[in-house]
Amino acid sequence: MANDSCRLCGTSEARLVAVVDGCQYVRCAGCGVERMASYPSADQIEKFYDSGYMTKQFNNLGHHLHFTKEYRETYFAEKSLTFADLRMDLSKLSGKKLLDVGCANGQFMEYTSKFGMEAIGIDISEEMVNAGKEAGLNCHVKDLFEMEGEFDMLTYWDVIEHVSNPRQVLEKTRALLAPGGEVVLQTPCTGMVSELFGDKWLYYLPVQHLHLFSQESLFKLLSDTGFSVVSWVRFGSCNPKGSIPDVNKRAMDTIAKRMGIGDTIVVRARRTDN
Ligand SMILES: [Zn+2]
Description:
By secondary structure, this protein is α/β, with parallel strands linked by helices. It contains nine helices and eleven strands. Strands 1, 2, 3, 4, 5, 6, 7, 8, 9, 10 and 11 form an eleven-stranded mixed sheet that branches. β4 (about 95-100), α4 and β5 (about 120-125) form a beta-alpha-beta unit. Zinc ion (ZN) binds near residues 6, 8 and 30. Zinc ion (ZN) binds near residues 6, 8, 28 and 31.
């Protein structure tokens, strides 16, 4: 059955890895991605996102604080650290065209504005996009597949795990990039941390998270869709702030990052031209 085979590689053979709220995640024997099995229907997905999801996320993630100085500084500091880890100097991208896919309320666009990038953001959430527009950002309610034009960089912050077909998204990404253009993509990363936490891993989120990549499966998909990885960083140890004492969290986060086993990955990949 089509709904039971992997949307990335077509393989139906898989091993159960987690059960959350009665929903199963399996690891694909073909490509190694962990995916919901079965995939939720389009109706289920629509119902989920319609039921106040955006507002919940907005509040849970502290995005309502976004326009306060304190929150912006924390977010900007995190992004600066990530780009330093990726050995990427954004000031060299002044005047370049950026498309931030799944821009939410535009916080990343706001971050890049200080480097002089020409940023456009798209999101399917009208609520989020309106917040961005109010802040004077160039964001739009639009689907990636409606986009045309040529960009120097596309970014996906915690987006690819939500989309129904990541392969098609990366193919479209490549088509929108200028020769030598780059994609920067952040997503949860399966591996030692997810295996240790099992069902309790933070990122097994049925209906929202359809595909959870291992580093290997993500790199393979990038390579299959015409990208070569330039640099990457992994960080995070699953423990949300406040769940364990700060000193322990800092220690675990440090170990995860230094060993390259963190459960979030950010990859920078360049369009290959053949
Ligand atoms: Zn697969």
